[in-house]
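Problem: given the chain below (226 residues), write out its structure.
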Amino acid sequence: MNIAIINSITVKDFALSQLQQVSEVDIIIFAFGVTGDVDLARELNGESKTYAELVLLSITKNCIVLAAMDTNFYGIKRKSTVVIQNGHILDINDMVHSFDQTYDKGKGFKIYDTDKGKLGIIIHNDILFPETSRLLAVCDCDLLITLIDRGLPKDCMVMARSASLSNGICNVCSEPHSSYLCDQNGAVQYYSKKNFMQIDFECQKDGAMLKSRQKDKYKEIFSNFL
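Solution.
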């Protein structure tokens, strides 16, 4: 799996200065703050071209593009990630857990069955809740991708590593000004504070964690406490 992560330059500056360095890439990830906030109504009306630029990039590189951003749709604000595959917008995934009324809650978690594998996306606050990664892993995703904005506790890396360790799955993480990869054992294999990082790794899973989990017990827990 070959993944490029862009953390602290704009999409235009990336295209002008570093796009030529990216070759044979499977997924390109833009962190929070790179694309800026997106008004979805203006995007639909053609007054804004943020998504069009990302779609073009996906076509040019024949890859998946994920871009984290704050979205606004007629006053409804969410922390979101747009998912684009080979020039087609598959979805806009939203953060589920909201601590205050600043951001609306998303509709739920989803796995994207792409030609690069099954991707489970974790957005900002959601990394602090272990059930997020547990649900995505139980539903057989191949890779976790965690996109974190400013404002979370500094130990969010602990949660990202825990998500990998407890579920036996790799987790590619992006924060403003830092990127890292947690392997299926929770160890950080790559880490960079540069505005651009490209990694090539074998996407592995530790099946023992999932096989040992008694899924029927989850039904008991939720029926008793929800």
